[in-house]
Amino acid sequence: MPETTLDYHNDSLSLSVIEALADATDTDPVELEPLYHVVDPEALDQLFQGNTPATARVQFSYGDHTVEVRSDGTILVDGTVHERP
């Protein structure tokens, strides 16, 4: 049976959100307030796996920023699209 390796940078939407916030705020990701203070990262990852409706999205505030995550993997911070790696 082949092993499946989880690629956290491509498979974890919550890590992509952190990277987008770091980029938007010009801050090192480790210096950011933990994402779990505003949203459950595991729930966010699970919400957008599998058969998520094409129109699904989650929007939340992170400090002074508005973050929107769409079912196609698009992440917007304050209306600016951040590409996933």
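(the above was protein one; protein two follows)
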Amino acid sequence: MPVAPAAVPSQGRLRLFHELHLTSFAREPLAIERIEVQGDDGRVLASYAGDALRRRLVPAVPAAETGDARLLAPGTVRVLHVELELAPTAVPSSLRHIVTYGVAGEPADAQVSAGAVAVGSDGAIVLGPPLRGGPWAAVFDPAWARGHRRVHYALEGRATLPGRFALDLVKLDAQGRIAAADPDVIRNAYGCGEPVLAVADAEVVAVRNDYPEAERISGNGRHRLSAGSGNHVVLALEDGRHAFYEHLRPGSVRVAVGQRVRRGEVLGEVGLSGSGGWPHLHFHVADGPSLLGAEGLPFAFDAFELLGRYGDFEQLGQAPWEPQGAGMRRGERPPDNAVLRFPD
């Protein structure tokens, strides 16, 4: 397990995010039958088998392998992605993982314990809004194969998961549309040009402001890995945490490296520079200033109004969201694919 399990509050619960890495040193393929997640008192918090295990247990490099993800070939690595939802009083101080497996084609009659892993004690940093008003769709689904949650990067001999908690924030109208006219034109998007705000008093430690932006989403094309974030700002927060703002409109960044900013200060504008399917703000927090070489950390917003969510993400930009009427939420992470409004 590369980093300690980290908890973040959401809708009155605590979501505990972590990954378990499995490496085979066997000479024959192994079949993973079941993985249990236990608390420090032995209580089973989650148990994955069959399709549930197949959906969460993926190759370290998804494009490199096909077939049943529960089969662990010699010398290969699988990653189990876990998001537990627990009552605030039920969060354990440590976790243990019990893996039931066998040689492929034979009964799964062996077990191994991954040992106890302490749950991170720092908790989620609570931040101000990165944007004003709304509605904004907070796009995140931990099950997406190419979503931020499951994309590792290897830099300088170290594999990291910077987008573990990342959100893509897309502005909508009341009907759930992304743009006023032709949605393929980037400048037509409701979010394009919206001011991006400092979430805390901080120091600017990285900036890019000159990466070009296409006129149309269909013309955005592919970008080198080092340029996928497009124009960006990185802020050094407290206790070694860093806040990342990506895909900003070219020429819109108003700050420079070394500058001190105050919470609510405008840093730049929403755009679509670099990789992406629609104009949006990519926002995440990590343990270092590297865009791809730092570990993603949990964060929450001090206040937002929860308007609803998209149960079917394919409806984003096509239809209204499902209203929830949950009202103001404080000190929480938005639910997955939520629609929210930040204070003006």
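Reviewer note on protein two: The chain has a mean pLDDT of 91.
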